[in-house]
Every structure is written in structure tokens, then in C-alpha cells.
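#lab-general

N.A. 3:47 PM
ok so I finally got the sequence cleaned up, no stray characters, all 171 residues accounted for. can someone with queue access submit it? mine expired

B.Y. 3:52 PM
send it over

N.A. 3:53 PM
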Amino acid sequence: MKLHTLSDLFEHELQDLHSAEEQIIEALPKMIKKATSPDLKQALTTHLEQTQEHLKKVAEIAESLDIKPKGEACAGMKGVIAEGEEIIAMVEGNDLMDAAIIMAAQRVEHYEIAGYGTAAAHAKELGHDEIVVDTLIAINTEEYEADSILTDLAESRINAEADDEDAKLFA
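B.Y. 4:20 PM
back already:
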């Protein structure tokens, strides 16, 4: 599909975000299963619930604008998730696994932050209903919050525990 207008680009971005959320919903349970930290499992579980809501909201926005929510698969998210799965598959050690899961999850969050921020800016420029703009901004805020929670977990102990695990392996 050729994109000729900002409206076309916005439609493509909504479809991309819809696909990305679908892919994340599929990937998160695998991460939850591999995580060993109860706090990390809880953070990922909470975000899975949020992601399911995000998918519904993106579909509702698309439908309210007469846009089909499903388009091509989001290649960017597919790549980010595949890279995360590849790294996680290489990891040995529980603490290092949690650090790798956080790394992979934060890459996903950053991709979403870029997408939702752009979609909100385009929706505003296109004069879409304030509800559409506010919903996209609210989702983006939740993505920032999820990223912040992951950072806090990593910096408060998970990275240090992974480093201690390394020291024990090579001592």
C-alpha cells in the first residue's frame, strides 16, 4: 500500500500498533514463564493485562475512524521480539535470565513508546477527536510506566544479582 497523506500514515501506524500489541500478547506469557523473580513475573503479568486493554483500545480507535485495525504484521515488533527470544534462549542462569528478560521487554516498550507518541501527534495534527488523542497519550503513558518499572527492577537488584551470579560461576 502506498502512503500519500498523513492520514494514510496514521492509518498504517494504527494497524502497526494493533499488530504489535497482538505479537506482545503472544510473547509475554513466554517471558513470564521464564522469569524467576516474583516481582518481574508480577510486572510482566500486569503489563500483559494492560497490553490486552491496549489492543482493544487501538481496535476501538480504528473502528471509530472507519479504519480496519488489522493490516500487515508489524515487522519491527516481529524483529524486536525475535531478537529478545534469541538472547533469552542463549542465557544460562536464573538471575541472568531475569536481566535478559528485562532487556528484551524494554526494547519492546521503547518501540511502543515511539509508535504511540507518533500516532498521538498525527491524530492531533489530523484533528481527530480529543478522545482518540487522549487515549493514545494514555496508552503511551502506560508504556513509559512499564518501562520505568522494569528499570527500577533492574537497577534495584536484578542486574546486581546477575552480576553476582557471574562472579560465582567464574570464581
